[in-house]
Amino acid sequence: MESNERQTIINEIDKLLTKAFNARNKQLSQLLGLSSKALSLAKGINHVEGVLRSLNYIGIYHSKKRNTQECINICEEMHAFIQDNDEYVKFTGYAKKLVGIEKVYMKEYEASFTLLNEALEIFERIGLAEEIYSTQYLIANSWKVVGNNAKALEILQLALQNCKELNDKTKEVEILSSLIEITLELKQFERAKRLLFDVINIQKELGLQENHAGSLIKLGVIYDLHKDYAVALDYYLQSLEILRTIPKEDLTGNPDIFVVCCYIGAIHIHYDDLAKADLYYNEAADYAEFFDNFAVKAKLSLSFSNLRFKQNNRIEALRYAEESLQYFEKIETVHSKIYIYDIASYVFEQLEDYKRCYEFSKKLIDLVSKRTEGFQEAKMIEFDSKLKSLDLETQLTELKEMNEDLLRLEIEKNEYIGMVAHDLKNPISNITLLSKLLQSQATTIKEDEISDIANDLIETSNRMFELVNNLLDINIIESGVVHLHNTSIDINSLLNTIINHNTLTASTKGVTLHFTTSVTQNVLSDEGRLYQILENLLSNSIKYSKPNTTVSIITEITDKVYQDSFLQPILRIIFEDQGHGIPTEEIPNLFKKFAKVSTTPTAGEHSTGLGLSIVKKIVNQLQGSVYCESTVGVGSKFIVEIPFIPS
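Above: the chain sequence. Below: its structure as tokens.
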């Protein structure tokens, strides 16, 4: 064969494999057809690299289709062509990676880790950056499968960093999605939300419509778990609207549309709208046939069983429950089993089949315990290994740092107790003296004097109550046991209530309260905590305002770019006074406990020094920020910003 003719065939092989590569994610039949044609041409002219590339893509096809043995056979054929030729060592890495993936599905985890790490070593040695983070991603997912989420997170972070360096947005979405799954499993919901916003921004940029729908589902799940059903339903419906535009045949292998229909149905059951629940469950049933997945089928049967029970159709409820049982032992993954057993125990409890309810509850507990044991064992081994690797000098350094931390905490505790004692001493003394006065002059004291003494007692008691209440608040917040209860809040109505409560106090100083807003939507947040923040800041503004001035309260919605680089709508609330202002150097201390600044209340009002530190901590709980802008002689602005989640 002449060289020109051979080169023409090689060019044709390259074209075929380029098309095959581009078809690898969506058009698997094309991937196989194009790669097989390229393989035939490459073998015909003994073009080794063409043969290996073609075999690699055919192996990818079988891996994606879960044709495990066929994938392994293809990889063995690749090894036969390579024959320890260093020129083609990257294909050795590809083959090891593919077999490593299949070993996970075969539950041969030790072999999987060995092969994937050998592949990673090859890619690192020859500097194939894209394959490095791709393989790290697979290793991390293997750690996730065996229950070691900590190790999975560690490796995923490395993969993400390497992926970002090459600006591979498509792979970045995959890695972030795995990070989200783990953070959801660890119930790190706020972190999961931040990662989801990252993913959604990238998916919009890349036009990954189907993937975008999956991210919206995960956002819905977070709010669903927090019982914020209205927000969850909104995200689910947005996702369903996207998925309905995708042809059914293109949804094969991705059960998102089935899952979201079930989630929507479950929320309608919660709302007692059983007719709508029936509609969505039937839509889920229309898609279930496309997925050869026993967990999907079990979930559908259990969903219908629960719905029929709510419709008082016990016979049908029992039939669906019995139908679900045939799928249980065929479910393979531990994650799916945990999910389905949880639903099953609930459904059988509803049906008063307590024997089966007990069986599935016990299976669920056993699975979770084994997973936890595996995780704990892996963590202990990892921790023990790290301890052994530390030399004596490192241990001494860490011990010194711990002692310094303990000393700092002891000093802080003593200062804390001293400040509390000091702040309580004067009001207690005042109450004692006033009580003795009443006791000693009960028969001679005048009525108006009694009224004055009573007012003093009330004011002093209120000061003590405020201090104790603040101390309890800050203690609860710092202990980490604050539970947020998000509801739909009309922020304008809430602020009007707070303004009305403070109008009398303001009027005694001649201070006018002026409220302007551009917010027209309700916000999802914890009303009690939000009230506490805003009331504290308004009363603070009044306290430090000069007489016969104005305190302006402004609300607006704007966008803010966070450090994680995603754009998040925020609700901004501003309190602006016309007081003495705060020196620039003192502003950093404002939000610390028992903060003392040179500026004092303009009418001798009392301050515990705790209010702003409590505001800061609550705002942090709400995933927001609070800060101060001030000019001496002009006044101060206190600004609260919290994520705006419309409701």
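Residues 392-440 form the longest helix (49 residues).
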